[in-house]
Specification:
The complex is a heterodimer of chains A (395) and B (213). By secondary structure, chain A is mostly helical. In chain A, 62% of the residues lie in helices and 0% in strands. Chain B is mainly α. Chain B starts with 22 loop residues before the first helix and ends with a helix. Classes of the chains: A mainly alpha (395), B mainly alpha (213). Chains A and B meet through α2, α4 and α5 of A and α2, α3, α7, α8 and α10 of B.
């Protein structure tokens, strides 16, 4: 056995793990090799020193402390217990709280058009991508016509108008009026909402018109008059026109707004028959009974020419014509709105829709009207729509 | 807390070598008997504490914390203990892995692990050379020797070994585990245990020899 072999066996020798010939061999080597014997002594002393470190005991009360800690639930148990125990109480509470939170968030979003517009304006996403999620069908709303206006004097916060109008405008004109893209539909709704808000304002004379729908320059109404004057004349009856292309974009059919009608003040100045007439006509429009709606709106305008809802009624009348593809009559009504109510905030909407009817007839004057909307009413919802249509139809 | 419905472990084998003296206590502890668990803690607290103390370089407070964590881990894992091995072997495995994991974590995040973090002069998680430590903490090494304070030197040199060598040396030469128990606790082959123990011992002998002359 060499010295290296002998030293390689020190560990086993120390553990008494050698036996037989191996034990005899290393014993003989150690007896005859002083160097290995010294190494072995050194090895054994070192291992003995390690062993002498020995065991140690923790401080008194260690087991009690461990038991105390063992009795405590673990953090995960504590979290689970805090969240779910008792299950029958906390889960329903959490579900209700979650539902309330979601409802509050939705309500806040819907009732804060400024917030919504701010979010939209800050977003760099394309308009379609931005608005598509919002165009989901809204919950069913009871027919507006059956709800007579109830409120009288005070104008409710105007933020309520968009919500009710938006839900009512979900019914698209499917047959006579091609369904516009979702985003445009949504934007059209917003525009109509503004119209109806303004209608309520006019009726109540109590609220300031939203500056969003003011002309960019000049005093209110001036731009409308100017645009009306600059608008190309309507095509002569019987004049040959280019084949009408498919309608470009069209706003949702005529507005109806039970909630807004609730907000219409000064019912005392409006006879009951006016309410019924107006509500019935709006309901007809909602149900796409355009002929009845046109008759009803005309009757309302004729019988109550001084009613505050007349501008809105004329706009709806034009919308009904437009939905029936009677674009010349629609254009005439839109022009009448701009001519007879130059101070009304619904002017951009009337201009935009007139432009659509003109484009549907192949009349390029519609492009100029769209440019007028973007130039003079840049803050109106119709301005965004007009820019879109301009980019696609009026390159 | 333990599941009170945990089934009882099968009875241990009757041969003396495999009889688990902890079987009864373990069964009761699995059933939620806190007294039985406390008895198990008392029975093994010295062993677990010693392992932690030697592996952590002699810091009693840190070792006690670690020993508590090991017992708590064992307590919460009792319901998964199937009795395939002795309770002591199962506990040893928990303790050794917990120690090694702790040391790995301390090496990775020296400031977050342990009470005082790593030694300021530490490199790579290892403590400073024993001569430096002794120079910091005591007047002279030979003075320590004169006071027969060999254990401090041994502890310091032990902390100088790699974790793999340190734990196998502690398990064998301080805790007195058999090769088989070491292999089971560390999840190693017997041959690996034998060769690793040899290298650890030779390194320790080389480190201690200058202090022992």
């Amino acid at each position: 056995m060499t010295c290296d072999e002998a030293r390689g066996a020190f560990s086993d020798l120390y553990d008494d793990a050698l036996s037989g010939a191996a034990l005899v061999t290393i014993t003989q080597h150690l007896a005859t090799c002083p160097a290995c014997r010294a190494e072995w002594a050194s090895f054994r002393n070192a291992m003995q020193a390690v062993s002498d470190l020995g065991g140690a005991e923790p401080s008194p009360g260690f087991a009690d402390r461990v038991r105390l800690r063992a009795d405590e639930p673990s953090w995960s148990d504590r979290v689970v217990r805090w969240l779910f125990v008792p299950l029958g109480v906390k889960v329903p509470i959490q579900a209700v709280a979650l539902a309330l939170l979601a409802f509050a968030g939705l309500l806040l979003y819907q009732r804060s058009p400024e917030l919504r517009r701010g979010v939209e304006s800050q977003s760099a996403e394309p308009l379609v991508a931005r608005e598509a999620p919002a165009a989901k069908p809204a919950p069913a709303v009871p027919p507006p016509a059956e709800e007579p206006p109830k409120k009288t004097a005070s104008v409710k916060p105007q933020q309520e108008a968009p919500k009710s109008v938006r839900t009512e405008r979900q019914a698209p004109p499917t047959e006579k009026f091609p369904t516009p893209p979702q985003a445009r539909l949504k934007a059209g709704k917003d525009g109509a909402a503004a119209d109806l808000r303004d209608e309520a304002k006019e009726a109540g004379k109590a609220a300031e018109p939203s500056r969003d729908f003011r002309p960019k320059t000049g005093e209110p109404g001036a731009a409308g008059r100017r645009l009306l004057q600059s608008a190309p004349p309507q095509a002569e009856p019987g004049r040959a026109l280019a084949p009408a292309p498919p309608p470009v974009t069209s706003p949702a059919p005529a507005p109806s707004a039970p909630a807004v009608e609730k907000e219409i003040p000064s019912v005392s100045t409006v006879g009951k028959s006016a309410d019924e007439r107006f509500s019935a006509a709006v309901a007809d429009l909602e149900r796409q009974r355009y002929d009845q709606a046109i008759d009803g709106l005309r009757a309302f305008i004729a019988e109550h020419p001084r009613d505050a809802r007349v501008p809105g009624a004329r706009l709806r009348l034009a919308d009904a014509y437009m939905a029936q593809q009677r674009h010349r009559e629609a254009i005439a009504e839109y022009e009448a709105v701009a001519r007879e109510f130059p101070n009304s905030p619904i002017i951009p909407s009337a201009l935009y829709r007139q432009a659509q009817s003109r484009l549907a007839l192949g009349d390029r004057a519609g492009c100029q009207l769209l440019r007028d909307v973007t130039d003079h009413y840049p803050q109106a919802p119709e301005a965004d729509l007009a820019r879109e249509v301009l980019s696609t139809r009026c390159p | 807390m333990l599941d009170a419905e945990a089934p009882a472990l099968p009875a241990p084998a009757s041969s003396g070598a495999t009889v688990d003296k902890d079987h009864g206590l373990v069964n009761r502890a699995r059933g939620g008997d806190a007294e039985a668990f406390e008895a198990l803690v008392r029975r093994y607290q010295g062993w677990v504490f010693t392992l932690a103390l030697r592996m952590l370089g002699g810091d009693r407070a840190e070792a006690e914390d670690m020993a508590q964590e090991i017992f708590l881990k064992a307590y919460r894992g009792l319901k998964r203990f199937r009795g395939a091995s002795r309770y002591s072997t199962w506990l040893y495995a928990i303790a050794t892995h917990h120690c090694l994991n702790h040391l790995h974590a301390r090496r990775r995040w020296p400031l977050q692990s342990g009470r005082g973090g790593a030694h300021p002069n530490a490199t790579g998680g290892n403590p400073p050379p024993v001569v430096d430590r002794l120079a910091d903490e005591t007047p002279r090494a030979d003075a320590l020797l004169e006071r027969a304070d060999l254990s401090r030197i041994v502890q310091a040199e032990l902390a100088h070994l790699t974790e793999d060598h340190r734990i196998i040396l502690v398990l064998r030469d301080i805790q007195g585990l058999s090769y088989e128990e070491i292999a089971e606790s560390l999840g190693l082959e017997l041959g690996t245990v034998r060769s690793r123990l040899y290298r650890a011992r030779m390194e320790m002998k080389a480190r201690l020899t200058p202090h022992l002359k």
